[in-house]
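Researcher: Let's do a round of design. I'm pasting the structure tokens now; please hold your answer until I've finished.
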């Protein structure tokens, strides 16, 4: 028998409005995987949300994959590993957020644990609930640095993507003093005193 690949979108296609899969669709997918066909979930969702949904749906057999983040990442759901990733450079995020705010949009970015946003909004609550995606509100860079350092584990690398020469942060149209080197040094000094 010739093997085939079935590409499926999640939201509005495979999943119902309540984010469930019908028994008929689940049975058909299970039969296809048992016959050796590949199932590829394609979604705009980030990996952390997609991986949870793929596991919930039982799409973890050999031949099950996910194309996530609007095509930026390909995930082998059986091996539980990323096999391709091409993301947006971190230097673009601030500009993208600022442009989104001009159009009254609700931007977020992602890390391994979930979504990161600057404002706790009703839209973020809905997005989080409907995509099985936890989120953290990080309103400024000092908070973001502290959050990263609080959650870092042995062997982790924290990358601060400031321009290096700037000692301020723009919030709205206001410039506030911020030197990431000072923030990190103060954090280390404070936590060293506690130890």
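Researcher: That's everything. Go ahead.
Model: Designed sequence:
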């Amino acid at each position: 028998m010739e093997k085939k690949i079935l590409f499926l979108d999640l939201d509005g296609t495979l999943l119902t409005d309540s984010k469930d899969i019908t028994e008929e669709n689940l049975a058909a997918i299970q039969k296809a995987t048992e016959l050796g066909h590949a199932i590829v979930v394609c979604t705009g969702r980030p990996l952390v949300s997609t991986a949870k949904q793929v596991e919930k749906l039982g799409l973890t057999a050999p031949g099950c994959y996910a194309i996530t983040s609007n095509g930026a990442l390909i995930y082998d759901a059986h091996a539980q590993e990323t096999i391709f990733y091409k993301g947006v450079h971190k230097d673009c995020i601030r500009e993208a957020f600022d442009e989104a705010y001009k159009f009254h949009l609700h931007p977020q970015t992602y890390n391994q644990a979930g979504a990161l946003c600057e404002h706790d909004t009703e839209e973020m609550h809905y997005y989080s609930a409907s995509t099985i995606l936890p989120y953290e509100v990080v309103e400024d860079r000092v908070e973001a640095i502290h959050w990263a350092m609080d959650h870092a584990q042995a062997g982790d690398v924290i990358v601060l993507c400031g321009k290096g020469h700037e000692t301020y942060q723009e919030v709205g149209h206001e410039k506030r003093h911020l030197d990431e080197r000072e923030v990190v040094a103060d954090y280390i000094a404070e936590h060293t005193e506690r130890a």
